[in-house]
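Thread: Newbie trying to understand structure tokens

Hi all, I'm a second-year student working on a class project, and my supervisor (Dr. K.) asked me to get a predicted structure for one chain before our next meeting. I've only ever worked with sequences, so writing a 3D structure as a token string is new to me. If someone could post the tokens and maybe explain what I'm looking at, I'd be very grateful. Here's the chain:
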Amino acid sequence: MNFPDDLRYSSEHEWARVEANRVTVGITEYAQRELGEIVYVELPDVGTEVEQTETFGTVESVKAVSDLFAPVTGEVVEVNKALEDEPGLINSDPYGDGWMMIVEMSDADELTDLMTAEEYGAFIEEME
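---
Reply by user tm_fold:
Sure, no problem. This is what the structure looks like when written as tokens:
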């Protein structure tokens, strides 16, 4: 499985790409594989405040509906509108076109709560 080194990971299987004070968020390759074919995504509106470890939306697959959890606290400044028509982008490109939202982070210290790619890989191995 692919866990890019430039990302941070939550124990709920979300990834975070940090660029200055903005964090792009999506779900990991592991998460999308476990979910199966994704058919619908519910994301927050721009301007919504999200809190680390709190639910920010849902993803629906042919298997189940699962909550999405924010890896950081802050304000949603952009959402991936392409997912409304093509939720399968999460399956085909979870770290690229399948991103979900961008958050203006309010507390950079929260990044220390997230795992590195190496730590996340070990976390997945323990789960399997």
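A couple of things are worth pointing out once you decode it. The chain has a mean pLDDT of 96. The CA atoms of residues 21 and 67 lie 25 Å apart. Feel free to ask follow-ups in this thread.
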